[in-house]
Amino acid sequence: MPICPSALLKGSSTEYLKSRQGCKTCKIRKVKCGEEKPYCTRCTSTGRKCEYEGTISMVDNPFSLSQNIVWRERRSFAYYIQQTAPSVGGGLDVTFWSTIIPQLCRNEPAMWDAIITIGALFESPEPCPDRISIRRGNSRTFNQDHRDALFWYSRSVSAIRQQIERGRLDMLVGLISCLLFICIESIQGGVEEASQLYGQGVHLILAFRAQIAAKIVPSANASLLEDVIVPIFLRLGSIAVPLSALQVGSLLGEIKHTLAPEFNSLKSARDGIVLIAAEIHGFEGECIEYLREPDTSDKLLTLTRQQSTLSARLKTWHSAFVNLVDSLRRRRDLSPQQIGIGALLFASHEALLIILRICLSSTETDADAYIPNFQNIVEQSEIALDATARPDGTQPPYTVELSVGFPLWFTCLRCREPRIRRTALALLRRAPRVLGFYKTRSVFTFGEQVMALEERYGMAMNSIQARASSAVLKSPHPPSRYQQGSQGTGSEVSKFDLSTLVTAPDDANIASIYSMPAGFENSISTSMLIPEEARIGPIKIFRPKDGLPQGTTEKDIAKWKPSHDQLFLRLTWNERDLFTDTWRRVHKYIPTTL
């Protein structure tokens, strides 16, 4: 049982400090105060600030100070139980985060320190300690919650390291601690650290599976691994694609890929679409590399067959999901939270459907055929965000759960209908501040910049083409082939200025980004608003230390003088040669902090 601060103080030299008149907060609220010191139970249990009149500072008494530290630990634990656990894993894994982990931490100080760290960071997410400040040891800029979190996290890591050195680390404890450390690093913006921990977690899972195969692990632990922990790592991996794509593949190797014809719960439906998503993301990567340098081999036939197989699996999932939702509705067994989860799964399905339909297409304008699907994504994402909003309208600061982040970001990049695109960006701003490994602000800032870049280039092209067409109509002689080329989208239109994607946009430009393009009317198609040449295609994220993408050389990124762990974006678009009337794919590289 948790120890009450008042119980710790009984019999101590500080007992004479106790006031029989109650704290200020309870007086204002006109409720009975328990008069516990230094903070009453009624205030601490509800997260309220507790103050007493004429209380002597605990700094004057070292023992009281130590008890204050104990109280802060227990307060962070209480916040974790009441606020963090129900939201960090979404509404489908509450038992794992609210019951299993707290039970394990009773006998594992390292896990205790990890969860109170997460509790403290959840309670004070802004401004969160960033990795640069931590490395510089500049802890004076942090508030008390952040200083506590850094101390507890360091203590937890040290305890795990000592157990490893002594050969006494329990596999399950190590794996769950690794997951908690991923959460802590991600909240702090440590993408590199979180991805390294993710890789270590995957290795632990594979080692755990080997122990299960040797029948030296209790069946309960085996079930916990495959039913809860592995799906969490799969969801984290799908968010982190392509950083963890290969590691996700190693997890899939042990999982049956056959989908059940029906689902008995939203959890089974979620787990099913996560598996399909992992496969589709991997398949999309293969298609991107194929389109970069298409050949006449049997590769296209193989990819087409794989596309058909995945499409059939996604269709099976959708049919089972619709039947489940219909069944729950008939029984009136859908809570607001479940409605939000259903909306999230539907939005995820729509994004995966579009990916499968266009991943083998060499033209970006093919995505315009799926405007209704993009509209579904933003509508369902809004429902999902409303369901997870806290009483004050904000979202929890962090989640490892499947979220609206990917469907909305995909919509921001691939949907060129301006109203839907802007709605997706606005909804992405409402999402939790950290999704998986990434800070949402970095994601939607990049989406804003891509939208502004495409629309600016598209409008410039349309303006020059309009002037060229007007000149042709006024001239008694048709232009030569050379003149046609020079009057089209030639040198008057500058190519993409990718420097705008490297630096953050000015705040003054945000309003203009969200305003509708000048002269836009409902009757104008997206292909006219943003022509093929003005569209940025598939984006590849990579780190040179992990290996360069196919066709990429050291020369392509040398000018940026990258560090060993620098993240890069490879951007692709189609460029038309007006003289030969042919198209070629252009690839450019820029560093990123996504």
From TrEMBL:
Gene3D superfamilies: Zn(2)-C6 fungal-type DNA-binding domain (4.10.240.10). Residues 22-52 form the Zn(2)-C6 fungal-type domain. Coiled coil: none annotated. Residues 470-492 are annotated as: Disordered. InterPro entries: Transcr_Regulatory_Proteins, Zn2-C6_fun-type_DNA-bd_sf, Zn2Cys6_DnaBD. GO terms for molecular function: DNA binding; DNA-binding transcription factor activity, RNA polymerase II-specific; zinc ion binding. SMART domains: GAL4 (SM00066). Residues 481-492 have a biased composition (Polar residues). It comes from the Eukaryota. Keywords: DNA-binding, Metal-binding, Nucleus, Transcription, Transcription regulation, Zinc. PANTHER family: ASPERCRYPTIN BIOSYNTHESIS CLUSTER-SPECIFIC TRANSCRIPTION REGULATOR ATNN-RELATED, ZN(2)-C6 FUNGAL-TYPE DOMAIN-CONTAINING PROTEIN-RELATED. This is C6 zinc finger domain protein. It comes from Penicillium cosmopolitanum. The lineage of its organism: Eukaryota, Fungi, Dikarya, Ascomycota, Pezizomycotina.
